[in-house]
Design goal:
The protein contains 2 helices and 5 strands. By secondary structure, it is mainly beta. The longest helix is centred in the N-terminal third of the chain and has 12 residues, at 2-13. The radius of gyration is 18 Å and the shape is elongated.
């Protein structure tokens, strides 16, 4: 009983600070009311977004709080004077703030290393349904 009361008091004391990460990206009002603790979230945790800002398609959500984003791009081959298709799979931290599923297009921002392979953070989920059927090469 005593432990339960202490945990309830701790939960009530936690006030979530929401910070503006800049880059003209706004956090939605629903996220402000969610109760979660994520120290790797750029909006509520101790992570700053700096460096590259990329867009890609989510191809895997099998890990907890981590998604795999596929970036398709064209690479110029000088010898043949043509482009070839290439891609990179980038593991990204995805805060519980975002509800994502496979096939969603997301904007990711570079941050400090969060684990052995994760160096990016999801900062925006695209809601445009027209672009879901098109391939993205940028």
């Amino acid at each position: 009983m005593k432990v339960r009361r202490e945990n309830e008091q701790k939960n009530q004391k936690i006030k979530k600070k929401i910070k503006n990460i800049g880059l003209s990206i706004k956090i939605n009002s629903v996220a402000k009311n969610l109760k979660f603790v994520d120290k790797k979230c750029p909006f509520t945790g101790n992570v700053s977004i700096r460096g590259r800002i990329l867009r890609g398609k989510i191809i895997s959500t099998k890990m907890e709080k981590t998604v795999i984003v596929r970036r398709d791009y064209l690479h110029w081959i000088q010898k043949y004077k043509r482009f070839e298709k290439r891609h990179k799979n980038i593991p990204c931290h995805c805060s519980p703030l975002f509800r994502v599923k496979e096939g969603d297009f997301v904007t990711i921002g570079q941050c400090r290393p969060l684990s052995k392979t994760v160096r990016f953070n999801v900062i925006h989920v695209e809601k445009d349904r027209k672009s879901r059927n098109k391939k993205v090469y940028s």
